[in-house]
Amino acid sequence: xxxxxxxxxxxxxxxxxxxxxxxxxxxxxxxxxxxxxxxxxxxxxxxxxxxxxxxxxxxxxxxxxxxxxxxxxxxxxxxxxxxxxxxxxxxxxxxxxxxxxxxxxxxxxxxxxxxxxxxxxxxxxxxxxxxxxxxxxxxxxxxxxxxxxxxxxxxxxxxxxxxxxxxxxxxxxxxxxxxxxxxxxxxxxxxxxxxxxxxxxxxxxxxxxxxxxxxxxxxxxxxxxxxxxxxxxxxxxxxxxxxxxxxxxxxxxxxxxxxxxxxxxxxxxxxxxxxxxxxxxxxxxxxxxxxxxxxxxxxxxxxxxxxxxxxxxxxxxxxxxxxxxxxxxxxxxxxxxxxxxxxxxxxxxxxxxxxxxxxxxxxxxxxxxxxxxxxxxxxxxxxxxxxxxxxxxxxxxxxxxxxxxxxxxxxxxxxxxxxxxxxxxxxxxxxxxxxxxxxxxxxxxxxxxxxxxxxxxxxxxxxxxxxxxxxxxxxxxxxxxxxxxxxxxxxxxxxxxxxxxxxxxxxxxxxxxxxxxxxxxxxxxxxxxxxxxxxxxxxxxxxxxxxxxxxxxxxxxxxxxxxxxxxxxxxxxxxxxxxxxxxxxxxxxxxxxxxxxxxxxxxxxxxxxxxxxxxxxxxxxxxxxxxxxxxxxxxxxxxxxxxxxxxxxxxxxxxxxxxxxxxxxxxxxxxxxxxxxxxxxxxxxxxxxxxxxxxxxxxxxxxxxxxxxxxxxxxxxxxxxxxxxxxxxxxxxxxxxxxxxxxxxxxxxxxxxxxxxxxxxxxxxxxxxxxxxxxxxxxxxxxxxxxxxxxxxxxxxxxxxxxxxxxxxxxxxxxxxxxxxxxxxxxxxxxxxxxxxxxxxxxxxxxxxxxxxxxxxxxxxxxxxxxxxxxxxxxxxxxxxxxxxxxxxxxxxxxxxxxxxxxxxxxxxxxxxxxxxxxxxxxxxxxxxxxxxxxxxxxxxxxxxxxxxxxxxxxxxxxxxxxxxxxxxxxxxxxxxxxxxxxxxxxxxxxxxxxxxxxxxxxxxxxxxxxxxxxxxx
Length: 1018
What we know:
Blueprint: E1 2-11, E2 14-21, H1 22-25, E3 30-34, H2 41-53, E4 78-85, E5 88-95, E6 98-101, E7 108-111, E8 114-120, E9 136-139, H3 142-153, H4 157-163, E10 165-166, H5 168-176, H6 179-190, H7 193-231, H8 235-251, H9 255-320, H10 322-367, H11 371-374, H12 382-408, H13 410-438, H14 441-459, H15 462-519, H16 521-527, H17 556-594, H18 599-676, H19 682-726, H20 732-738, H21 742-767, H22 769-772, H23 782-844, H24 857-880, E11 885-890, E12 904-909, E13 914-916, H25 923-944, E14 952-955, H26 964-979, E15 983-987, H27 991-996, E16 1000-1005, E17 1011-1016
Parallel strand pairs: 3-15, 3-16, 10-14, 14-15
Antiparallel strand pairs: 1-2, 1-4, 4-5, 5-8, 6-7, 8-9, 11-12, 12-13, 16-17
């Protein structure tokens, strides 16, 4: 995998947009990523890992730190990476989740993470400005892009970080770690959790097998107890069964056959006993059935004898009541005939009554009718006369019906005329008011327009007056700043004078101390001479008259302190002088800005400009107010004019309506006067005519009702005569005498019917074959038959109960026996399954006789991977250490409490041929040994991942602990990586590396906080 370009914006300490061209840096094969601590070197590595996997390099760090604290709210945080793998060139663009300012309102909102990826064509231009227009999109969902990128790279995030970005600190820890800690890192890198999970699964399977075996044993014991209870065995028999089954379990071989043999012996014995009990129950049941048959026959015969005696008694009683029954039959026949003609009698009586009522109705109708209708002319039929009078009155009433409505509507018409006259008067007054109001509008509009034009003229000067105010304010501010600057300059001048005096004092003090020290230097040298020591001045070993050290001797430390004080005083003087110079320049610039204008004049001009601007602003407000006011004035005028035009048109319409309404009212009143005649109103005349019509109809209806009643009476009398003749009655009175109440008739019918029914039943019963065949002297002993049947039934129930108990014991024992055999089979299966599982669990878990070193499967796999890492690391370590150091894996436990062996490590020092603990290595030795481990780990991981080509590597900090010779060896090894086609990025701030590596990425913090990035290549 080769990195091509990286572009980042608003990421970490980088507020702006920066692009790293790895192709240019890779020309030399080795580049340096350098900068002060905290400036953002690790941010570049985090950006690369984030672009590929959506997470930063450290598993413990959060992606929240990717958003730059120095970026503006409208600047998006972006990482854009282009890389090349054997399958092609890919580009991925990611944004992290971060909080940004809301576009509307205050506060912040969450900007969600996003991703886009493309596959670029071969030879594509990688200029960021043109990349958006090329490439095949791979998706924009986090999950699908993540899968595509990992598929293309061939490494997951952990493997990538361990191979592309070599974290020296972690491998130094790995070098010195205890086996248990080393185990965790190896497991994380190589993903060997599956072997540990396999061992755990086998251990769980062993526990499951143990539980299954225990459950099967418990089930066999429980089934044996159920067999003993179901078979109701004695204590000795139960003990024999349990002993036999326990012995079979102990033997193991033939367990199922032995259990089946014990069960079969007991169940066969119970089955035989049950068969004998069933035979005895069958014989007793046959005796019971015979006794029952005899009892049923005796009971039936006794019942027939009792029934025959009852029927004979009933027949004798019926013969004695035969005469009374005949008389009741005759009375019942006459009553039924009278009941048949009774409706005809009643119908004739009702018809006569109705005729009398109809005649009275005719008389009453004639009495309530006008005389000219009720009294027809002589020789004229009453019905014809009444019909003619009613018809004449109806025709006259129909002719007046319309005029009744006309008469009723006259008053509403009169009110409508009055209302129309009032409306005309109101419209005339409204038109006059509109004319008066509209006459004042032109003058008012002209005044409003004049005020608007004046306000617009004044508002137009607002920009000019605002500029004048700004200039005045700047002049006032310059006066204020000038006063402050002159005050600060005076203070700085005083400080410069004081600093100059202090520098002179410090210089004099240093000069005096140096002179005193030089003057007393002989005494200082003599004080250090012992007898026999060579004098540093003359070389003599004898010192007959050594100089004496003065009491106020000045030491070298005092001179150095004085020199430091003098240098500090000079720096303070220089700083004070520079400050005075800066303040002088600033004060001069402010004096040039204020010119000849005094502070009082500037303030007065500022107040005048502010007042003028306020007037212009007020005029702007007046314009804003007056423009809609003028438009509203015109709208009101046009609205009033429209209202006047509407009133004029309506006045013409109302006057025309009034004329038409008056003509219509006059015509209606004339027609009503003609129609009422000598009556007070048309309605009164119309009501009288309707009354004559109603009286005529009443008389005609009464006459029709009388004629119908006469016809009904005649018909009813004819029907009555025919009915009396048919039922043998001479007259209606004879039929009334024969009639009885319904209750009496029903009782006669019940008595006659009951006698006939009882006689038929007694005759039929005595004629039945079973009763007729009975001998007159026949007797039955029912008690003896009942006693015999009861005894046979008790015996049958006893034998049946014994058989049922025997059957239940045999059946229960058979079912329980099947359960015992099934439990034995399950136990045999569980014991057969548990053996291989236990052996495999012991083997993979580090136990068992076949695992002499007690290594778990996961530890064994890690140990082999660890050996590969050590072998790969030694290929470089022997070169870097000039053949001195070699790593070896050790089976010894570095800690007595360690659970596993095989992951310990020792360093062979070939100078002493002794094995050393890695923790005894120096800082520099630890660095390059850790580097070899990291490179070896990268080789093994890429081999595990299918031989992935790692075209770009980053080697992290740690070079400062190396001596020059070792540093050269490390750089030579990195050079070999470069010769193999890899591009190596060294992350360091060691000065020697800056001199050795020309191509670099420089990261520098600025005074304002954010960092800058510069790529120097070629």
